[in-house]
């Protein structure tokens, strides 16, 4: 049973806005990290910002392909002040957990509406969210262990690759991926 009474298309439209909001939040984290002379952390979040933007545009392309009217929702201003990297990363982790719940709701709505194409579309995002939450959880753990030695976070990020393990073919991106 779906946790949300909205239709799949309503939830998908809202998710476009959530993905753009996540992109903006990651830019804010990246800019904060850049201002703190944390280039590895900044680079990671600049990159993640593009990933979130691409997720929104995958959803837009899906709606275009299915002849569903597309509305681009407005997004709230991101949080831009953090007490340290762990604070910024905890915010990012909570955001990823929220996105996971939203993706689950969309999958459940598609299933409840007997929309197998919608269900299939959401499967890639469900796999992606498992990876996103796990990666962000690891970064929070590293930042908390590093405490005030922010250079240890930079060392970790320089050493560890951020490559995706989601081997499924990603959906098409409207306008092309960046």
Features:
single chain, about 180 residues, mainly alpha, Ferritin, 5 helices, elongated
Account of the protein in words:
It is a single chain. With 178 residues, the chain is an all-alpha fold. It has a single domain (8-159), classed as Ferritin, core subunit, four-helix bundle (Ferritin). 70% of the residues lie in helices and 0% in strands. The protein is built from 5 helices and no strands. It has helices at 8-35, 39-65, 85-112, 116-146, 150-159. Helix 1 (8-35) packs antiparallel against helix 2 (39-65) and helix 4 packs across helix 5. The longest helix is centred in the C-terminal third of the chain and has 31 residues, at 116-146. Keywords: Iron, Iron storage, Metal-binding, Oxidoreductase. GO terms for molecular function: ferric iron binding; ferrous iron binding; ferroxidase activity. One of its GO terms (cellular component) is cytosol.
Per-chain topology:
Layout: H1 8-35, H2 39-65, H3 85-112, H4 116-146, H5 150-159
Radius of gyration computed on alpha carbons: 17 Å
Q: Unreliable stretches, pLDDT < 50, 5 or more residues?
A: none
DSSP helical segment count: 5
| Major sheet | none
Please identify which CATH superfamily we are dealing with: Ferritin, core subunit, four-helix bundle
CATH class reads Mainly Alpha
N→C terminal distance: 36 Å
Global structural class:
mainly alpha
Number of domains: 1
Q: In the CATH scheme, what's the topology name? A: Ferritin
Mean pLDDT: 93
Shape: elongated
| Helix content estimate | 55-70%
Binned strand content: under 5%
Give the strand tally: 0
- List the helices and strands in order: HHHHH
* CATH architecture tag: Up-down Bundle
Keywords: Iron, Iron storage, Metal-binding, Oxidoreductase
GO molecular function, one term: ferroxidase activity
Organism: Dietzia lutea
Pfam families: Ferritin
